[in-house]
Amino acid sequence: MSKVLTTIVLLMACVCSHAQDPIAWDELSAEQQRVLKKFEGKWSELPVHKQNKLSRGAQNWQNMSPEKQDKVRKRYKWYKDLPPEKKERLREKWKSMTPEERKAFRKKNKDRF
Questions:
Q1: Residue 23 CB: number of other CB atoms within 10 A?
Q2: Distance separating alpha carbons of residues 65 and 109, to the nearest angstrom
Q3: Measuring CA to CA, how many Å separate 67 from each of 63, 64, 71, 74?
Q4: DSSP string, 6-40
Q5: Cβ atoms of residues 39 and 54 within 8 Å
Q6: Is residue 20 a contact partner of residue 12, using CB atoms and an 8 Å limit?
Q7: Which of 72, 61, 71, 65 is CA-nearest to residue 29?
Q8: Which residues of 34-67 are buried (b: 16+ CB within 10 A; e: fewer)?
Q9: Structural domain boundaries in the chain
Q10: How many C-alpha atoms does 46 have within 13 Å on its Cβ side?
Q11: Per-residue pLDDT of the chain (113 residues; tens, 9 = 90+)
């Protein structure tokens, strides 16, 4: 029993040591804050993994050319305007694809928008 308990404690310690700290709103750059403005009021309530994902996305957005940003906006609008059933079918299809299939799909459709 003590081996099991020791193993559990060690596993928990490993998980905790790899856990990321929350990102304070004030730690974001001014540009990240501008991009993520709609999350400001609820930022501290977001899970850490969501904060990290959003802050990386905002950083990527900053590094895009205006042309690339425009392309992303158009793709987002296209997706947003889809009926819910079509969105769900696309999500399911995407989940079922292998990384190689996803890469081929991106390559095939990169100039679609």
A1: 17
A2: 19
A3: 11, 8, 6, 11
A4: HHHHHHHHHHHHHPPPPPPGGGS-HHHHHHTGGGG
A5: yes
A6: no
A7: 61
A8: ebbeebeeebeeeeeeebeebbeebeebeeeeee
A9: 2-109
A10: 20
A11: 555 544 555 455 555 445 588 999 999 999 999 999 999 999 999 999 999 999 999 999 999 999 999 988 998 899 999 999 999 999 999 999 999 999 998 888 777 65
The pTM is what? 0.63
User: What is the residue-wise DSSP string for 71-95?
Assistant: HHHHHHHHHHTS-HHHHHHHHHHHH
* C-alpha torsion 81→86→88→89, nearest 10: -150
Two tokens, residue 65? 């050319």
